[in-house]
Amino acid sequence: MKKLFKEFKNSLKDIAVEEAVDLFLFRPVSFIFTKFLVKIPITPNQISLLSLISGIVSGIFFSYGDKKSFVYGGLFFILCHIFDLLDGMIARLKKNGTPLGRIIDGWVDYITSIAVYLGFLLGLLKGNFDLPFGPWPLMIAASVSLAVHSMAVDYYRQQYLAFALGKNKTIGEDLRIFHRRYESIKKKRGNYVEKILLFVYFGYTKLQVTGTFDKKKYKNEDYCSCNRTLLVFWNMIGVSTHRFFMVLAAIFYNPMIFFWYILVFANLWMAVLAIIQWRVDKNAASAKRG
Questions:
Q1: Coil/strand/helix, residue 277
Q2: Average pLDDT, whole number, for the chain?
Q3: Is the pLDDT of residue 253 over 60?
Q4: Gap between the Cα atoms of 181 and 59, Å rounded
Q5: CB-based contacts of 159, cutoff 8 Å, min separation 6
Q6: CA dist 64 to 17, 73, 136, Å?
C-alpha cells in the first residue's frame, strides 16, 4: 500500500498545487487508468488527443439541450478531464514529457473549453431553463471569468512551485526558455505547428507576467509558510473545480448551479484573495530585503 501511495504521489505535480476535487476524486480514478497505460507504448500527446475527442463529444451532447443529453455531456466531460489529468501523470511516471507536450496540452484545454462552452450555450438556447438573464450574456460572462480565474490560479501555482519548492521555473523564466526555442526555429523551414503553438503560448503567458512580482526573490521557507494555505484557497477556483460544477449542473439539469459558482462565488472569492495575496507578497518581499 505504501508503494502504491508513493507511486500515486510521484504522478502528481505536488499535493500543494492540486485542487481538492482532483486530489480526492479525479486523480485517484485517473491513477487506476495510469497503472494500465504506463505499461503500454502510449504517449502523453496521444492521451491528450483522447481528451480532445471526449471534450468535443461532450459539447455535441450539451448542444441538444434536453435532460438526457446534458447527462451524457456531463459524463463525457468527466472522461475528458480524466484524460486531461492522465497525460501529465503518464509523462511524470514515464519521464517522457516535453515542452511542446505542455503547449499541446494547453491547446487541447483551449479547444475543449470552446467546444464545451459553445455546446452548453446551444443547449441553453434550446432547453427550457429559468434563467435570470439570457444564455448569451451568462455564457460570455462565464467564459471571461473562466479565463481570468485560470490565469490567476496557474500563475500562483507556478510561482509556488518555483519559490516555495524549487521544483519549477517562474513564469518569466519559463517564457524566456520558450522564446529562445521560438527564435531558433522561426527562420527555419518546417515546424509550422510548433511555431504557431509557441506564438500563441507567448500571448497567454505574457498576460500572466504583466504587472506581477516574477522578478522578485523570496526565501523558500518564507514563501512556503506564507502561501501554502493561500494556495489551497486559490485552488477552489481552478479549472478542475469549474468543470466539476459544470458536470453537476449537467447531471441535475440545472445550469444555475454552474453560474452561481463561477459568476458569483468564484469572482467574489478571487477579489478577496487578490487583496490578501498582494499583502502577503509585499510582506514576503520585505522580509527578504530585511
A1: helix
A2: 83
A3: yes
A4: 34
A5: 170, 171, 213, 214, 227
A6: 36, 10, 16
Q: How far apart are CA 126 and CA 137, in angstroms?
A: 16
DSSP assigned state of 18: S
Contact 143, 117 (CB under 8 A): yes
Q: Yes or no: say if 99 and 121 are a contact pair by the CB < 8 Å rule.
A: no
What pTM did the predictor assign?
A: 0.83
Integer Cα distance of 141 and 259 in angstroms:
9
The per-type count for the chain, helices as H runs and strands as E runs, is 13, 0
State the amino acid at position 173 in one-letter form.
Answer: E
Cβ neighbours, 10 Å, residue 22: 23
Report d(CA 258, CA 244) in Å as an integer.
9
Q: What's the grid cell of residue 124?
A: 441553453
End-to-end CA distance of the chain: 46
